[in-house]
Amino acid sequence: MYARVVYESMFGNTAAIAHAIASALSAFGTVEVVEVSAAAAFPAPAVGLLVVGGPTHAFGLSRVRTRRDAATRTDADIAIETGIREWLDAALPVPAGSRAAAFGTKVGTPSWLPGSAARGTAKRLRRLGYGLVAAPEDFLVEGMTGPLAPGEIDRAKIWAERLAHGSPTSAPLSH
């Protein structure tokens, strides 16, 4: 299997999850990890599985405004203009049978906090013609800038192993 993991990350938490997913998927074939601002420059090979993830901002996928705000909270170099939302909105439809999965990171407390970048990503992937191999998955951070909640890296690896064996389904958009 040839897989590509595309991610958007502000504080390193989503990047850590993306790399954990890629690490687990590498047991099943070649995996490429690409930050979203660079993804448009990569040709779109026929990947066996596309995994896309980003942080939850203001109850959904980030926007230029929310990325600009995040940039004021870190010294990291953040791509302000291009996020998962813009990248997927500019993407072309894919052939039938194309497989994908969506993940996101979000603040885990309070537990009732709504919103999910994973669900927004999954909707966009479906609109492009991808069959989801699993329901969108959220991984938890302990605060706006992190760190990841204990056990989330291991949970991401387990989720990735399930993805490798999944086939396109009509996986529900909610948990």
Automatic annotation (TrEMBL):
Top-level division of the source organism's lineage: Bacteria
InterPro entries for the chain: Flavodoxin/NO_synth, Flavodoxin_CS, Flavoprotein-like_sf
Domain Flavodoxin-like: 3-164
Record's protein name: Flavodoxin-like domain-containing protein
